[in-house]
């Protein structure tokens, strides 16, 4: 049975919603009633049926709407997609990975057939049926990375590995939480993480880099990250700060449930076989507070996490302005009872 | 099994003598599927069941990355080595089922390079077989200088000359031909990257001259074919697993830990990747650090060791593992 793709928007009238099944599969990121950085990296292996980990590359009911939103962002600002000249081979690697994973996980929606270098790709939700020569950029309407990431949910950073470091040398980034590919392109791992508070002191980045540079082919890894967003916007980029920044001042006790969204990123890390690069898909999931409260455990726990978050982190995540309003609203959902261990709802 | 990499079940599909010292081995997947794609410079770790003992040796993939119907490696026989290459030469026949790791690349091409200048010594030619195939397919600019003892020991020299003609330069020790290294290094176009693979002496010579002639370190890439060095036997206590084990003369510390039933991570087994790094809890004696991973400061501190290549001489050693 196929996915029923929603018609919805992530801008203007903000009609984005999660279906009840999608609320239950939301990747809630807090396994306890508090939050602090950790190198929370684990093997990216297939998880329970019905969860966002059922397939290693997840496609969900928001797919078509997200791809339409991406096309709008790119039409306004083509610099959201960039690839330095030496990264074309890595782009082909990524095209192969995403076509393989999407067709494997969702055969009713995607089909890949290969005859040597002659490949045919059918994407039914987007009405695409293309035949091309693998490795020959002139046979696709875009470069290989842009072609396939216009058809894949989430952002993609492709990292070149050299000198014991990772370099952000290509990417498709349109659904980001306040950072910019155009700013970070060409930077190494330490340079692009420079703004993150507290974690440097803990030596987290040195350990994380050692781990990432040792990621092996056939053994992807993953972690969850989170922030909050006012209104269900996918594109909260620095370039468009003037559009979404002022939203933070619009949160009132009356509209918290509809406006404030928990934004969870499922980040995975894959070694690419031909280029020996690493691709870092950042898949964004949004859930509004009114949807979250349908799972009482999550609402109780989120109250405690946001209430006790260190100020530096709240500031870095951009919550400071509306945190008191949000905590007050969430406190009414917290009866003080214990939360069960683990991420899932009760 | 191992925590190193994902494993592949393969069958030896062919064994081809190349010259007096080198034999080539071909592997195919047992299930008939294609093998994983790889990049030039990658190696696999081959598991050898040698009686009651498991040997794990890394070998560069030397086929074209464009053809993954089979993997090929070339093994130089070392009659005084630790036994892995002898096992390959004596015991591995077509039809034998073996287990190898997924490809791992610790000697990757820098795809930004305007030109790739490659220097190979002896069996150090193997990673360049795949790298030149990869570059040739993409129209990349490369030049390979290959030194060997004699023409008959110039493994694949004929193949390379036929494929790439003047991009290949050969040097034979018995004819006293030497790479004119300084001239070569000082006449390269801007944007050239240098790659060297061969005996330690050659690698050190090339790195030193490149540094002296002003090559930025990030443009100089090298791969050691370092097997663990034998040494005096020593005893180790593993604190976490609560075992005390003996490391034999011909055994590496990593192999002894594995033989004791502990499953430490590893990738290269040659002291460069960092995966098997282990904390030292206490020691009374001297480390013989043969690795290229830890900093000099780490070596001096006595707090860390790379069990794949490093040894110890002294009274007592306790590791965290």
Automatic annotation (TrEMBL), chain A:
Which Pfam families does this entry report, sorted A to Z?
HODM_asu-like
UniProt xrefs under InterPro entries? HODM_asu-like
Q: What is this protein called?
A: DUF3445 domain-containing protein
Q: Which organism is it from?
A: Mesorhizobium shangrilense
UniProtKB/TrEMBL annotation, chain B:
State the EC number(s).
Answer: 1.-.-.-
Q: Locate the 2Fe-2S ferredoxin-type domain: which residues?
A: 234-321
Q: What class of enzyme is it?
A: oxidoreductase
Q: Which cofactor does it need?
A: FMN
> What InterPro entries is this protein classified in?
2Fe-2S_ferredoxin-like_sf (IPR036010), 2Fe-2S_ferredoxin-type (IPR001041), 2Fe2S_fd_BS (IPR006058), Beta-grasp_dom_sf (IPR012675), DmmA-like_N (IPR054582), FAD-bd_FR_type (IPR017927), FNR_nucleotide-bd (IPR039261), MRET (IPR050415)
Transmembrane stretches, start-end: none
For this UniProt record, give its keywords in alphabetical order, as a comma-separated list: 2Fe-2S, Flavoprotein, FMN, Iron, Iron-sulfur, Metal-binding, Oxidoreductase
Gene Ontology molecular-function annotations? oxidoreductase activity
Does the keyword section mention Iron-sulfur? Answer: yes
Renumbered to this chain, the signal peptide range is none
| Top-level taxon in the UniProt lineage | Bacteria
Pfam families named in the record: DmmA-like_N, Fer2
Domain FAD-binding FR-type, by residue range, is 5-110
Q: Know the name of this protein? A: PDR/VanB family oxidoreductase
Q: What is the lineage of its organism?
A: Bacteria, Pseudomonadati, Pseudomonadota, Alphaproteobacteria, Hyphomicrobiales
């Amino acid at each position: 049975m196929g996915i029923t793709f929603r018609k919805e928007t992530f801008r203007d009238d903000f009609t984005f919603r999660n279906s009840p099944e999608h609320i239950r599969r939301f990747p809630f990121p807090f396994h306890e009633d508090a939050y602090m950085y950790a190198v929370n990296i684990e093997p990216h292996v297939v998880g329970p049926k019905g969860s966002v980990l059922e397939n290693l590359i997840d496609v969900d009911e928001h797919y078509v709407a997200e791809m339409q939103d991406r096309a709008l962002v790119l039409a306004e600002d083509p610099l959201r997609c960039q690839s330095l000249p030496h990264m074309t081979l890595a782009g082909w690697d990524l095209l192969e990975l995403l076509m393989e994973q999407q067709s494997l996980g969702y055969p009713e929606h995607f089909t890949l057939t290969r005859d040597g270098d002659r490949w045919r790709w059918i994407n039914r939700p987007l009405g695409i049926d293309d035949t091309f020569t693998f490795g020959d950029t002139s046979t696709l309407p875009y470069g290989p990375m842009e072609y396939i990431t216009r058809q894949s949910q989430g952002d993609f950073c492709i990292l070149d590995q050299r000198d014991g470091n990772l370099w952000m040398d290509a990417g498709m980034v349109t659904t980001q939480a306040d950072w910019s590919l155009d700013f970070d392109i060409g930077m190494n791992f330490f340079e692009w993480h420079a703004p993150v508070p507290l974690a440097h002191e803990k030596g987290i980045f040195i350990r994380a880099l050692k781990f990432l540079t040792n990621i092996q082919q056939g053994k992807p890894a993953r972690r969850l990250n989170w922030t909050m967003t006012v209104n269900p916007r996918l594109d909260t980029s620095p370039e468009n700060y003037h559009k979404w920044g002022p939203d933070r001042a619009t949160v009132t006790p009356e509209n918290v449930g509809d406006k404030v969204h928990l934004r969870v990123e499922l980040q995975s890390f894959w070694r690419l076989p031909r280029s020996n690069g690493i691709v870092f898909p950042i898949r964004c999931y949004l859930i509004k507070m009114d949807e979250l409260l349908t799972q009482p455990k999550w609402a109780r726990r989120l109250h405690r996490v946001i209430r006790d978050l260190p100020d530096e982190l709240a500031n870095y995540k951009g919550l400071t302005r509306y945190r008191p309003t949000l905590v007050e609203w969430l406190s009414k959902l917290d009866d003080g009872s214990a939360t069960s261990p683990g991420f899932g709802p009760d | 099994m191992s925590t190193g990499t994902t494993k592949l079940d393969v069958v030896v599909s062919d064994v081809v003598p190349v010259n007096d010292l080198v034999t080539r081995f071909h592997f195919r997947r047992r299930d008939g599927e294609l093998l994983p794609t790889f990049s030039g410079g990658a190696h696999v770790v081959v598991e050898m069941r040698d009686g009651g003992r498991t040997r794990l040796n890394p070998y560069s993939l030397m086929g074209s990355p464009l053809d993954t119907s089979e993997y090929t490696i070339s093994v130089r026989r070392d009659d005084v080595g630790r036994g892995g290459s002898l096992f390959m030469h004596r015991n591995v026949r077509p039809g034998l089922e073996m287990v190898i790791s997924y490809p791992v690349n610790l000697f990757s091409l820098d795809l930004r390079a305007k030109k790739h200048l490659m220097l190979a010594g002896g069996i150090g030619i193997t990673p360049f077989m795949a790298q030149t195939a990869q570059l040739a397919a993409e129209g990349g600019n490369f030049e390979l200088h290959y030194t060997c003892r004699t023409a008959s020991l110039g493994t694949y020299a004929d193949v390379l000359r036929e494929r790439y003609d003047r991009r290949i330069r050969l040097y034979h020790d018995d004819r006293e031909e030497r790479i004119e290294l300084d001239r070569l290094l000082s006449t390269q176009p801007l944007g050239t990257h240098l790659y060297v693979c061969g005996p330690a002496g050659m690698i050190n010579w090339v790195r030193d001259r490149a540094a002296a002639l002003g090559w930025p370190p990030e443009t100089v890439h090298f791969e050691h074919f370092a097997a663990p060095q034998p040494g005096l036997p020593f005893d180790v206590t593993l604190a976490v697993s609560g075992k005390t084990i003996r490391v034999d003369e011909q055994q590496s510390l990593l192999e002894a830990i594995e033989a004791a039933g502990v499953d430490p991570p590893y990738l290269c087994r040659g002291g460069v990747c960092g995966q098997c790094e282990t904390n030292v809890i206490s020691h009374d004696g001297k480390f013989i650090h043969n690795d290229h991973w830890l900093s000099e400061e780490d070596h001096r501190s006595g707090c860390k060791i790379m069990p794949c290549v490093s040894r110890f001489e002294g009274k007592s050693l306790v590791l965290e593992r």
